Amino acid sequence: MRRATLVLAVVAAGLACVKDRPCRDNTILVNVEFADSRDLVDGVALKYRLDDAPTVDLLPIDRPPGIDQGGLELAVQNYASYKKLTLQYAPRKAGNVVGPWQEKVVDLKAGCTTIDLIVAIGGRDAGLADALEPAV
After folding, report:
1. pTM of the shown model
2. Under a CB-based contact definition with an 8 Å cutoff, are residues 80 and 73 in contact?
3. How far is the C-alpha of 102 from the C-alpha of 12, rounded, in Å?
4. Is 110 exposed, middle or buried (0-12, 13-18, 19+ CB in 10 A)?
5. Whole-angstrom Cα distance, residue 118 to residue 36?
6. What count of other Cβ atoms lies within 10 Å of the Cβ of residue 10?
């Protein structure tokens, strides 16, 4: 069984406008928008799986004061050999998960993939259109 290996290339949770830059080759760009106030949600927990490899926990992303959006870019070794990404995420407060885990399954695009998430305590991904999933 091939082992999925992600290298955390950039954690940019403090960036105000991650969506304005394209993803780089062999990466997954995860844009995060926090829908609830910082009093309710101060970060996000993330897990991922490439194809049928085991699920891997990523370091949580803390939300700096005054920031409602940001993201991270993951460099993927052997990116072209994978077809599917499963990303699980949940809101955090004071180091604890405080809302339901949600899951997005996306097909990896040639070169790189961008995923948009809305993190909210109610577990609602409130309709932010993914670059990979058409809005319904």
Report:
1. 0.74
2. no
3. 22
4. exposed
5. 9
6. 14
Q: What is the 3-state secondary structure (H, E, C) of the chain?
A: CCCCCEEEEEEECCCCCHHHCCCCCCEEEEEEEECCCCCCCCEEEEEEEECCCCCEECCCEECCCCCCEEEEEEEECCHHHCCEEEEEEEEEECCEECCCCEEEEEECCCCEEEEEEEECCCCCCCCCCCCCCCCC
Count Cβ neighbours within 10 Å for each residue of 84-100 and write b for 16 or more, e otherwise.
ebbbbbbbbbeeeebbe
Phi, psi for 8 (deg, rounded to 5) = -70, 110
90-114 residue pLDDT tens: 999 999 999 999 999 999 999 999 9
Is 33 in contact with 116 (CB distance < 8 Å)? yes
What distance in Å separates the CA atoms of residue 79 and residue 67, rounded to the nearest whole number? 30
Amino acid letter, 14: G
- Confidence grade of residue 38 (pLDDT, cut at 50, 70, 90): confident
